What we know:
The chain contains 17 helices and 22 strands. The protein has helices at residues 58-65, 127-132, 134-137, 141-163, 204-212, 250-269, 282-289, 315-322, 339-351, 381-391, 406-424, 468-472, 504-513, 518-532, 546-553, 584-589, 598-614, and strands spanning 20-33, 36-42, 47-52, 72-81, 100-111, 167-168, 186-188, 196-198, 217-225, 237-246, 279-281, 303-304, 326-332, 358-365, 368-372, 398-404, 435-439, 444-447, 452-455, 484-489, 492-499, 539-545.
Amino acid sequence: MNSYRTHTCDELRLSDEGKSVRLVGWVDTVRDHGGVIFIDLRDREGKTQVVFHPENHADLAKQAEALRVESVIQVTGKVVARLKTDEIDATNPDLATGEIEVDADGLVVLNRSAVLPFQLDRSVANEDIRLKYRFLDLRRPEMQRNMVLRHRITKTVRDYLDEQGFLELETPILSKSTPEGARDYLVPSRVSPGKFYALPQSPQQYKQLLMVAGLEKYFQIARCFRDEDLRADRQPEFTQVDVEASFITPEDIYGWMEAMLQRVFKESVGRDIVTPFPRMTWHDAMDQYGSDKPERRFEMKITDCSDIFANSEFRVFSGAVADGGVVKAINAKAFAPSVGQVDALTQTALEAGAKGLAFIKVRDVDNRDEWKSPVTKRLSDAELQALRERLNIESGDCIFFAAGEWEQSCTILGRVRLQCAEYLELLKDNHDIDLFWVTHFPMFAWDKEEGRYVAIHHPFTRPIPEHVDKVLNGEISTDLCAEAYDVIFNGNELGGGSLRIHERDLQDAAFRALGLDEKTINERFGHLLSAFSFGAPPHGGIALGLDRMVMLIGECESIREVIPFPKNNRAVDLMCEAPDTVDAVQLRDIHIQVKLPEKLRQKLEAEAAQEKEGN
C-alpha cells in the first residue's frame, strides 16, 4: 500500500499464507505465553495477531514484551496459519483474521504511549473523562463503528439527493439574529463596532432565498447552532440534512424522504424498511399518545372517558367536562407500581401541569377484583362498569387519569405513559423500526407568559389552503392548521418541515399575527419580504437531524456517542477547555468589555478554583 504498510489489520486471510507483510497500528493487547509474545495489532479496519518468538528474534521479543498498549508500531513478518489440530485449535472465529497470524521478524516503535487515563477495552462510567480524552475514546471499537456509520449515512444521503437533481450549496455561518426559536450564539464584529453576527439556528431564510433565486432544488449537510439547555439528543452545535425545493406539494417531500431513508437503512445497517410510511394527524397523535412524536411500539393508548363522567358526583371529573375539558385515561396493563413509582409518576404529572394524578389499582382478592383508590369511593357502580368495558380492565391493571383542558390532559398522560413503559420494560431489547409521518400541525400556539401567539414550527410555515384567508384577515386562533409535517422514528422526531409562505402579503400577515410591528418586521425580515416581491415560487422543504439519525439507527443512548467532538451536558468542550476567557487585546479589538455581577464573578472564580484543584 505504501512505505508504512502492505495491508491493513483486517485484510490478511489464510490464502495469504507465506507472504511477507508490513503492518502498522496500535498495540491493542500484549500477552506473554511462556516467553512467546503475542500482540494484537489494531488499526481502523480491524485486528491482526502478531507473534514474537524469542528463539528466532530474542531482541524483538524483549522489545515487544515492554510495549504499553496504545503504542504505535510497525511490524514486518510472514503470514502463517494458526495452529489447528484435533487437540488444539488456536484460531479465533470472532476475528476476520482469526485463521492466521504474522510471525514477526521486524519491529519499529513509531510512538510510545503514556499510561492511559482509562482502559479502552472497558466501559467508562464517567463521561467527562471520556470527553476530556476524546482522542482516546474515539479509538474504542464501538466509537469507530459509530463514526463509520455516520460517514456511510452521510454519503448515502448525498448520493441519493444528487441523483434526484438537488444541488449541494453552502449558506453563511455568520448571519443575522432573528427573534424566533432558541437563543442565538452571537459573534461581535470588529469592523462594525457594537454590532453582532448570529450563528444560524438553521439555514431557513437562506434556503428560501435560494428558491427565490430559481435554483429549485437545494440540499446541505448544514451546521446549526442553538444556545439552549442540553439533553441526551441535543447539542449546542449540530448537523442537519437540509432540503428545499420549488413547485412541490407535501407528497413530493414524503416520497423523496421515504426513498432516501429506505436507502440509508439498507446501505448503512442492512435493514429493509417498508414504504410508504403511515401517516397520522397531529390531533390524533396527541389524542391517542399524548405526544406529537408518539412512541407506538407498545399499546397503552390514551382513551377519552369524558362521556362516562359527564354527570359524575366526582366533581374533579364532571367539572372538567362541564368547563369544556376532558377526562382521559390509560390502562397500564399488568402494572403494580410501588409507592416510589407512584410518587415519581405523580411528579411527572405535576411537571406537565397536573394538580395531581388520580389512579386506580385493580387487584385480585379472593377471586374477585378489588379497585383500590380514593377515587372509586366517589364513582358509581355504573361508571366503574363503563370504565371497565371502555379500558378492558382486568386484575393486575393500573389506571391513570387526567382531567382538564384537552391538550394538557393529553400531554400529562403522554408523559405518564412513557414512564410506565419504562418501569414495565416494554421497549427492552426492542429493535423494531417504526417510521411514520405526523401531519396537519397547528400553525399557532398561545403563549400565556408573553401574552401572544407563537409559531409552532417557524413564522415562514404556510397555512393550509382553507386557512390562508383567515391569516390574511387577522383571524388568528390555535385552530388554524399549517402545511407542516414531521417524520417520526421510534418516538423521536427525526425531522420536520413544511410548505413555506411565498407571498409578501401573507408573510407580512403571519409576522403580525406573532405580535411583530412594522418596524421589527422590516429590520429583521425586510430582505425576505423584498425577495417575495420579485416572483418567489411556491416552495417547501424539510430538515432531518443527522446526528439524531445516526444515534437512532446505531441504537446509541446519547447523541454524544455519534459526534466526533461533542460538548458535555454543560455545553463545555472538556478536551480543548472551551468556552474560555480571552485576553484584553482581543476584547479591545472587538470593542467588548466584560463586566460580571460581583456575586456571579465570585461564584465562577470559586468553581474554577475547585475544578483546578480536582484536576
